[in-house]
Amino acid sequence: RRFAHQHQHLEDMKFLASFLLLSQVAYGCTTLIVGRNATADGSLIATHSNDGAGKSDPRLVFVPAADHAAGATRPIYYSPEDYPRYVGTERGIPAYYPLPSQTVSAPIGFIPQVAHTYQYFEETYAIINEHQVGIGESTCSCVNWVKLGGKSSVPCKSPGESNCSIMSIDTMSRIALERASTSRQAVQLMGELAEKYGFYGADSFEGSAESLMVIDTTEGWVFHVLPHPSGTSAVWAAARVPDDHVAVVANMFTISTVNLSDSQNFYGSDLAGLAAQYNIAQSCPSNEACDFTRTYSDGEYAHKYYSGRRMWGAYRLLTPDTNLPDTYNNLKDDAPYPFTIPVDPKGTGHRVDVTLAAKVHRDHYEGTKYDQTQGLAAGPFGTPTRYAAGAGEAQVKGNWERTISLYRTSDSYIVQARGWLPNEVGGAVWFGPSVASGTVYTPFPIGMTSIPEFFSEGCPNFLAKNTAYWAIRYVANLLETKYSFMYKDVQATQNQLETASLELQAKYDKLFADGQSTPADLTQAFTANAATFLSTYLELFDQLMFKYADGWVNVPNLGQSVGYPAWWLKAVGYQNGPPPPLTSTKILN
Known about the structure:
Blueprint: H1 15-18, E1 31-34, E2 44-51, E3 61-63, E4 66-67, E5 73-77, E6 107-112, E7 116-117, E8 120-122, E9 126-129, E10 134-141, H2 169-179, H3 183-197, E11 208-215, E12 220-227, E13 234-241, E14 245-249, E15 257-258, E16 266-268, H4 271-277, E17 290-291, H5 292-296, H6 308-318, H7 331-334, E18 341-342, H8 354-361, H9 391-395, E19 409-417, H10 423-426, E20 428-433, E21 442-445, H11 453-456, H12 468-479, H13 483-513, H14 519-547, E22 552-553, E23 560-561, H15 566-571
Antiparallel strand pairs: 1-2, 1-14, 2-19, 3-8, 4-7, 5-6, 8-9, 10-11, 11-12, 12-13, 13-16, 14-18, 15-17, 19-20, 20-21, 22-23
């Protein structure tokens, strides 16, 4: 394989297999969902950011449709969350074929297979299938059943084990897109799978729960799931998003009142019965009036505002005429942000499109009092990045604001479902490797027959510069050295490439709708477009290096000195530095 040789001279890769044995630490994801009457063109939109800890698997992979023999079973694999997400040939996906020193993934269980499974794209989670069913994921906290007398949910280690679970959110999302032709079918199927085969979470923060944004061409759903206190089932709910609304999930449940007798808008397990059994039924007296979040959430991760600030930040851009508070006492109990919000409460015509969704994912609260590009912590050149805690933070207790765009994001994406177009072009993912503020969102329609190798290769474990992931990572890390200067150049390149992609998408929407294009044409055209992105970003790194080398600005003239901003010089005591030299006095004899 083309990139496999690049890791041979590095240290032994045997540690990759050990990821399967390590406990996982979830660092959170931000997701958006936009109803069809809340978008500029009538599409539905779902988004996702994979905000791992430098180990996540950033590969975008094509999963072909397949037919299966009667009586076949589908293997279920453990979901490690980190790279590599799967190793083996069983799935028939070249990107997952074993590299030297990698251990082949072994099934932990099996379920009955269906006669036919659909084509889809996946990263850590399934993204979109050939019927335009799309998904975005966010890990959430949940009630700790052990503290209430229940059991922990643990993954099975091998087929046939009891008192364990085999369904992770990764697996459930894949099975849903293999089998479901609507978002409604998808949420019902995932709930059934979780209840029947047991759900386990990928991390250990107060018991691990998950949320998915699920869309198709007509409607969108928010799906919440957590382990069951038996350790072998699941608790779940799904709520429909009104067509003219938007919703944000940022590592905390958001579904409020659930009414399971209203099957047009809600699905779920027996919420009230379980709540009564474990004496947590204050906010869930019945299945017709159950506040899912107050009952089953454990609140915000890490610190106050870890989830709420992102919700506020996203909503201020998605629905700017809604005046939401930026502070609160307790996000779970106060519920300052509704489950969904109308996109245009004042009738101004405001709507959401791909460009605005990308802007939300690139946000550091610019222009607000929480703007992370401002202040002493941002340094003289306004970097919004605040790195993970180390030795210093062990001595100085505190927290940074949790931004939407984050340096440790492995990838983010925007899914479109557009029902007025043929499925092959109507369904698309705009995929952005690495940090959102530095990435370019590149489109791939679901009708393509393959994904470019430079998107389906690349990982954090070894450097492969000619992959999309590392091309972005190079630019993003260089950007940190002089952010306020370089980001203007990066934004110009992002705008140039994404504008060209929008034009290409519009062209092939029309060609395919008119019967003048084929899946092979789509594959060729959008692969070429992705290659243009890659070459442009590889050149951008060199351009930035030259333009800003050694602290100068070297374009249009070499060696232009720009120094530091006056406010920063005062803040760090520049004025208290060494004084000017004393003036000598010549003594005349």
